[in-house]
Each structure stands twice: as structure tokens, then as C-alpha cells.
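tool=predict chain=A
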Amino acid sequence: MLELPVWFEVGSLVVLTLILIGDLLLVVKRPHVPSFRESTLWVAFYVALALIFALLMLLLGDSDHAVEFLAGWLTEYSLSIDNLFVFVVIMARFSVPKKMQQEVLMVGIILALIFRGVFILLGAQLIANFSWIFYIFGAWLVWTAIQQAFLHREENAEENESKLIRALRRRVRISDDFDGIKLRTTVDGTRVFTPILIVFIAIGTTDLLFALDSIPAIFGITQSPFIVFTANVFALMGLRQLYFLLGGLLERLEYLKYGIAFILGFIGVKLVLHALHVNELPFINGGEHVEWAPEITTWTSLGVIVAAMAVATIASLVKARVDAKRRGHTLMEEVPHFTEDTPSRER
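tool=predict ok
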């Protein structure tokens, strides 16, 4: 695989940083509930940006770079959508006002970038020094896939999160009402924390848990730290607008978790096979690589990822449409779109 030009890698990181800063400033200066049209345009812009980036990698590098990026980006994007499910629950549970949700989501995205950046550096170092780490990454993803599909992983995460929040409430005085995005406010002359502190902790905990899954998953597709990082950034860019675009549709993507579980399980198996192929552990095949262990190509991974997400999404929409029809409605009638004129609705 050809090396990408250094100027392209450095320039890409600079441009992505500027875009993220611009997005952050936009939220700070104009906090509002994005309309359906605005959210659609932003999501389309970020998707187009990712595809242009893949094209540049093809032209400046080779097809391997482009395919690895696309497969990594789609994997991280699917996991990010899964992350949105939990964000929806957090927003509803703590009754976060609609106009504050953009700012809260931006904080969540920044925390996700920080956590994933740290894990990317750690993962790259581990892979460079210990090839057997692929066994651990693979086993972790297979276990995560089983949890995702069969063991109500989100419910367990919510239960652990609730315990943390209850412990925090016992030790820290927290007001009943929000004061914008402020962490602290004054109640009866006393400085206390606002509920936004709990929301940030809940979102940060969620980001940390998803980072533990997403980094091993993308390292199963590429070992290039640059591709791993940029794929994560592109997957998180536009996530805020996607939250408002999908709206109530998120709750109706019932089979999406199975598609994501299949992807995680597939990449987990791929990592284990790769570990066998480069095996150095003395108690496995005498420390020699296992000849029968096949290497799954990135093109195959890309095809499996696209197919799994397409099948899960289409199946979910078909079921949601059938359920809505049974209730005498169309699917679009039951999906609330978040527009500036739409009254607040708790989901």
C-alpha cells in the first residue's frame, strides 16, 4: 500500500479541526432546534465531505487507502448511530430542553473525540509492540456482539449509569432546574450544581463505553492511525444534526442493533483470524503462523458492512411501516420531526 503524502495528512487534520471548531462556534452563538431541512442539508454535507475525502485518498494514495477509510467510516458511523439511541434516552430521562440539546450533543461529540483519540494512540502502540493484542480485540468484539444482540447491553449500561448518578446525588447538591448550559447556579443564595452536570457525566460514560468498542472494531479494518482517526472524526461530524434529522425514527430502527452486532462479530472473527495468521504466541501452533487461517480482505469487509446495515435498516423500516399501518397511520405520521415550529415532545 502506497504512503499518503505528509502534506495531505497534516492538511486533513488541520481542515477537520477547523470544521469542528466552526461547528462548535455555530452551536455556541446560535443555540436552536435545527429544522428538518437544515439537519438534512448538514448531514448530506458531511457525508459528501467523507466521500470526497475517500476520493482524494484514492487519487493521492491507492484503492486500499480509500476502501479502508470507507469501511472504517461506515463501521464507526453505524456505531455512532447506536450511540444516538442512548443519547435519546439520556435527553428524555433528564428532560433536557430542546434548545439545549444541540449544545449537550456537541459536548458529547467532543468527549467522544477525546476518548477515541486516546484509545487510538494506545491501540496503535499495542498493535505495534504486541501482535497478540488482536486475539484480545477479536474476543472483545465477539463478546460485545453477543451482548448487543442478546443480552440487553443498553439496559445494563443504563443500570450502571443510574447507580453512578444516584451516588453523585448523595454527595453533591444539585438543583432541580437547568440554568441554560451552566454547570453551577445560585439557589436561595447558595451555589449549587445544575442537572446538566449529571447529563454530561451520563453522556461521557456512554462515550467511553462506545469508544471501547469502536476502536478495536476499526483496527480490525486498518492499522493506519491516520485512517482510524479520520474515520472516527467523519463518523462523529454531523452526528448532532443526524440526531434531529432522524428524530423519532431512531426508536423504530428495531433491527439496527442486530446489524451492528453482526458487524462487530464479523470484525471480531476477522481479528482472530488475523491474529492466527501473524501468530507469535508459543502455546499456539508452536509460535508459528497458522497456515489455514485466511485473511479477510478489506473489500470483503466493506461489502459485509454495507449489506448488514442495509438489511437491518430496510427490515426495521418495513416492520415499522407494517406496525404503523396496523394502527391506522403511515410511518411518517408517527415520526416527529424536530423543527423550530414543532412543539416540544417527550419521546
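The longest helix spans residues 98-129. Residues 76 and 214 are 6 Å apart (CA to CA).
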